[in-house]
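Note on ligand handling. Small-molecule inputs were canonicalized before submission; formal charges were left as drawn, and no protonation-state enumeration was performed. Where a ligand contained multiple stereocentres, the stereochemistry in the source SMILES was retained. For pyridoxal-5'-phosphate, this procedure yielded the string shown in the input block below.
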Amino acid sequence: MTLDDCRALDHADPLRELRDLFTLPDGVIYLDGNSLGVMPTATPARVADVVAQEWGNGLIRSWNTASWIDMPQRLGNKLARLIGAAPDEVMCTDSTSINLYKVLFAAMSQAIDSGEPQRRTVVSERSNFPTDLYIAESLCRERGFTLKLVERVEDIPAALTPEVAVLMLTHVNYRTGVMHDMAALTEAAHAAGALTVWDLAHSAGAVPVKLNACNADFAIGCGYKYLNGGPGAPAFVWVNARHASRFEQPLSGWFGHAAPFAFTPHYQPAPGAARYLCGTQPIISLSALECGLDTVLAAEPFNADGEPMSALRIKSLALTDAFIALIEARCPGRFTLVTPREHGQRGSQVCLAMADAAEAQGNAAYAIVQALIARGVIGDFRAGDAQTPHILRFGFTPLYLSFEDVWHSVEHFVQVLEKEEWRRPEFNQKNAVT
Ligand SMILES: *Cc1c(COP(=O)(O)O)cnc(C)c1O
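Structure output:
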């Protein structure tokens, strides 16, 4: 693959003009949209208008006149189509961690209500995102459950024993880029009498998700990654309609009440997914999230059959294929590919580890990422431990990345390695956020 090949791919790319929806700093190739999405060009003016007009002039009236009160649901309806959910099943609210607390609690309730005292295990992966494991740890401790962590993807089906109440997985693993088979694992969990909780942090806006077609039970996900909602953007929560009014969630605040403005002293959960709201919503942040959602919807991410994410997925796979091919051709022997080559198992990111055993546990991965960032190629680093290598992680967002970007990012890789730039002391000092 040559630079001219990349330019030809860009020329034929039906999504290439969507880059104009974003404000990217000059000289930056941004391969970290899986951690914090790029700012949509529409966001500053929209947020300024919400502040100056809706808040400044409208004041309290804007809860009605600017429909602030409906925002979690209205935004949820925009997002629903991207994740294979139906209208009014999704709420944009709170953080991913907090939403996980709510839905995992609700999912555990089925086992408690069922009168099967032995069904007290939550299964997840040891390599799941830490906040997911920490939230599960805390809920398991509080409710007398055991958290069982499997080491390898292949071990999940065998872990679904009659003790399992909930299978809690992140659909696309944050440090490997492995995408699970949601339909098959959901079916296996149901066959074992368990419910599923899916974290879509690296899926929503990145890969096709079909929650209802997979008959999943609960899902949550992140607003500031591929949905471009801005730092700390509100997250989302989805509940299968057959469970939505069945369980209570533990953060029973007034926005999840059946009649918040009746001001009654006792909690009565709202019917449906609205009960997964808690308190007053962050309107300014929700308005920024809406601008982000609109960028994904601008890709017309549905084919004629209404299948979500088709054009975005095709380009995402082509970008990650090109990156893998160029890294292997131009930096031979230096890196091991951690992300699967099989399209069906790959998210929208590519994760590399150092091929050399000493380098894999040493500082090289971190320092190479720092040297690339200094050159304007922004990816990130995820620390490993004695069993797992350090990871160089690169997210590919088809909305604003070109094939030429991929070419130049690998050219910078070559330079960083050939000139041994990464050995400089300034690239070997750890920052607080990696
Ligand atoms: C990014 C991410 C989160 C983030 O949770 P916050 O509550 O926003 O900090 C959670 N889970 C996974 C799998 C993630 O990738």
